[in-house]
Amino acid sequence: MREMLGKTRPYTVLILHRTPKHGEQGSEKIVWEHGRRNFELRRDGKILIVCPVGDGGDVTGVCIFSTDPEETRRIYEEDPGVKVGIFTFEIHPTRTFPGDALP
Asked: Phi and psi of 87, rounded to 5°?
């Protein structure tokens, strides 16, 4: 177990929250741009996994970033939805177990 723990890798988890502005008129265009940007970040290897959450709660998504927490914060402060107050986010540093992967 100690050998395996020495092989863990750092990642950053971002939890995205919707605000009351999320349903306002015109917000769908900004949400679309938010999604487009996530595709670009994924293409560039900064976001590894994107998990939209659609259960009606205030959490609207979870992402796993390959970047450190500080860079992740800088990246997401520039998100179109965050900039206009449709979304807020929280960041948590994490590590994976060696060999973990989604099927």
From this structure: -125, 155
Q: Is the pLDDT of residue 103 over 70?
A: no
The whole model's pTM is what? 0.90
Q: 97 — phi, psi (to 5°)?
A: -80, 145
| Domains of the chain, each with CATH number or no CATH | 9-95 (3.30.70.1060)
CA angle, corner 44, sides to 86 and 17, nearest 5?
20
- Residue 86 C-alpha from the chain's centroid: 15
How many helices (H) and strands (E) are present in the chain, helices listed first? Answer: 4, 4
Tokens of 65: 């970033």
Read off the pLDDT of residues 33-84 as tens digits, 9 standing for 90 and up.
999 999 999 999 999 999 999 999 999 999 999 999 999 999 999 999 999 9
End-to-end CA distance of the chain: give it in Å, rounded: 23
